[in-house]
# Entry
Amino acid sequence: MAKFPSEAWFEEVRKVYNGDDRYRGGGAGACNCRAAAKVGEDAYLIVFEGAECAQTRRIGGDELADVDFYLEMPAERWKAMIQDIAEHGRASLHYTLNTLDLDSDDGISRSVHGDQYREDLFFRYNQTFQYFFDASAEVSSTFT
# Structure
């Protein structure tokens, strides 16, 4: 079991994502970006290179300036999304990243640099990120 959020959890999801061809057709195909997931004070880097998630690791808050964008939700919302994915094998309608973004007053995608081109990568590669988190259905997760 991997505890969410943790570096081990993101690494387990990365392995599932990279090892399952179902996730290869996401979005517009090749995805090249540096993103992060922010859960409370914790942030985790997610790097995509082509059709592969090349790297995940915990980062410090100051490193958020090095990513194209980051996804931020309260820990309870992350937990609900991951539990929904585990229950259904993928996110149901109310727990897709797109729905969560639209349902949030300020959205869930953020940046510290104000570069609209880089921020747009969330919308361009949304399905790739959805497939990444959907891969967590194969990871036995516990929560803090």
